[in-house]
Design brief:
TonB C-terminal domain-containing protein; TolA/TonB C-terminal domain; globular; alpha+beta; 4-stranded antiparallel beta sheet; 13% strand; 10 strands; signal
Length: 381
């Protein structure tokens, strides 16, 4: 299944490499070229799967340029034109809905995001066999959407159902994913509310006691999850020791174990006296290196929105600099792993009391999107 990382890589693949003397060069920003490609595809009445691919590339570039609303509209228009092709192109249509889910969240539209997550599953059901594991995997994303909205019971019910059906079919890898998502969800809840500790332990044990080979990596991941929980509950002076004792992660994947808390209030979100929240996208692209010991270095803002980010950005940068990841082993670059994340302050849409006109909330929510694939790797000095 195609995610944003794939889309960013696909968009970047058609972008010429930067000159050798360049520093950090943003790729995949040729918005006009992507629009021409999509327009040409529509004009020649290209097959729906080709239009969807062109629309995803164009929408990705609009997103990178910071135009969240237009990016979403691009995908909605393609969805309207390809509405009858779920059965013929279930994978492509499902990809389209997943992208719409992401953009709806970034545009502060949780109801639309939830519907897109459900539509992604329906598209797969329309064209795949009823017992295809991809349908179960997509339902895990729907569970994530419910959890994001604080609908924990609904999320748990989906995770339990997916795990049960995957187990019955012998899809132990899918079952393991469902159980691990439940374990991480309840671990996070238990950290905020001790009442969830019993449930967190139960979900953890559902993985720990399994011996199937498909569960091996998830049993190992429980060790990192335990370290993360211990670091969250530890006093600051003990946190460094706990994180340093974590088992190293092999390769260029990184696992975040600890980040200093950064609280944001409405007055810090850059509202400048407006009624409701900012109607323009408010974001910043932040690059950094994860070093071999798991510490963070060279935190740098490499892009930002036209609407100036509020003071939340300074707080977030400080938190990122204080992150600790699991130690790294066997990375392809001696400097560590290079990462770029976009932080978007999203002001959800709602309805004012006594009216029907949608209005942005005055309290923003910080969303994080990994966009490493959209930036050229900085050359070694």
């Amino acid at each position: 299944m195609i995610g944003w990382a794939f889309l960013l890589q696909a968009a970047a693949a058609t972008t010429p490499a930067p000159p050798p003397e360049s520093d950090i060069i943003v790729v995949a920003r040729n918005v006009a070229g992507a629009k021409r490609a999509l327009d040409a595809c529509i004009a020649r009445q290209c097959p729906p799967n080709e239009e969807i691919k062109a629309a995803l590339v164009y929408a990705t570039r609009q997103f990178l340029a910071g135009d969240y609303a237009s990016s979403r509209q691009t995908l909605l228009k393609t969805r309207h034109r390809t509405a009858k092709y779920d059965a013929k192109y279930p994978m492509e249509v499902s990809d389209l809905h997943r992208a719409l889910n992401t953009l709806a969240n970034l545009d502060g539209r949780p109801d639309s995001a939830r519907l897109s997550a459900l539509d992604a599953t329906d598209a797969l059901k329309a064209g795949l066999s009823p017992d295809d594991p991809l349908i179960l995997l997509q339902r895990l994303d729907t569970a994530g959407q419910f959890a994001k909205e604080g609908r924990i019971i609904a999320a748990r019910q989906i995770l339990d159902d997916v795990a049960a059906k995957a187990h019955k079919k012998g899809y132990y890898g899918v079952e393991a994913q469902a159980l691990f998502r439940g374990a991480t969800l309840y671990a996070a809840l238990a950290n905020a509310n001790p009442d969830y500790r019993g449930a967190a332990k139960l979900w953890r044990n559902r993985i720990a006691k399994r011996t199937e080979s498909e569960f091996a990596e998830y049993r190992e991941a429980l060790g990192l999850l335990d370290t993360q929980i211990a670091a969250l509950n530890a006093k600051p002076r003990d946190r460094e020791r706990i994180v340093a004792s974590a088992k190293p992660v092999t390769g260029d994947e990184v696992v975040l174990l600890s980040e200093p808390e950064a609280r944001f209030t409405a007055s810090e979100n850059g509202l400048n006296g407006k009624d409701g929240g900012n109607t323009d996208p408010e974001w910043a692209d932040v690059a950094f290196w994860v070093r071999a010991d798991g510490s963070v270095a060279d935190v740098d803002v490499v892009g930002r929105s036209k609407s100036p980010p509020g003071s939340w950005l300074a707080r977030k940068l400080k938190a990122v600099a204080g992150r600790r990841y699991a130690p790294l082993k066997g990375t392809t670059d001696s400097r560590g792993v290079y990462k770029v994340e976009r932080y978007s302050m999203v002001y959800p849409l709602g309805t004012a009391t006594g009216g029907r006109m949608p209005i942005r909330s005055g309290r923003g929510q910080l969303e994080t999107t990994d966009i490493t694939a959209a930036y050229r790797h900085p050359p070694a000095s």
